[in-house]
Prior knowledge:
Elements: H1 3-19, E1 34-36, H2 58-67, H3 73-80, E2 101-106, E3 112-118, E4 125-132, E5 138-142, E6 157-158
Antiparallel strand pairs: 1-5, 2-3, 3-4, 4-5, 4-6
Amino acid sequence: MSESTARSAALVLAALAVSCGKPVDPSGKEDATFTKASMAGPPAPSGEDRPLSADLAVEPVSMLVTFNRLKTADKLQEALNKKPGQFSHIDLDKDTTPDPLTVADRATKDGHAFEIRVRPATGEFVVATMLFDPEWSYLGHYDGVMGGAASTTARPLPVAPQPGAPPVAPPVVATPPAVVPSAAPTQVAAPVAPAPGAPAIAEAPAPAPGVAGAVQAAPAGAAQPVTPTQP
C-alpha cells in the first residue's frame, strides 16, 4: 500500500471514528460487544481471555477491503493468506505457525459484513465480524459473531453450520463380525459301576471264527451220526 493511500485511509478512519456510532442491541442501547472504527483504540488485552481479534490486524484488513477493493470473501481470503503472519498471529493449535484464515459473507441490513475465521488443525473458529456501510466504508467489528459473545483464545467460538447446508454424515463405525458359538462337545456316558455286593455279570465272549478243515468236538450227550459198516 502506498504512502498516499495509507494517509487517505487514516483520514477516512479518523473521520469514521468521530461520525459513526455503535449499532444498537434489541433493547435500543448501544451494542457493547461492537468496537467502532478507530485508529487509536484501547490497547490490546493480553492473557488467555483476550479476544481472538486482538491477534488480527483488523484496521489494515479493513483497508484491504475499502481501498484495494477486495469486496468478495474469496478475494479477501486469498490476500490474508498470501503471506502467513502478515495480518494475523493467531496460533490455536500451538504449532508455532500462524493458522490460515477464512472469510465468509454475512447478511446485514446496514451494508456489508465479513466474518473472519481461523482454521487450525483442530477445527474452524470465528475471530471477528467486520461491518462496512453500503459504500464499503469501514464501521467497526464484533469480537466474534455479529451481535454475539466474544471469541477468546481460551474459548474460541466454533463456526456455526450454514443454513441449508447438507447435514454432516455421522461417522461410520465398523461392526465386529458375529461370533458363532462352537458346538457343545459330545459327552460319552461312563460305564455304570455295579452296586456293592452285587455279583459281577461277565459278558459273553464273542464266538471265535471257525478254521477251515478243523473238526470240532461235539458236546457230550449229543447224537452221533451212524456210519454204515462195510461188508
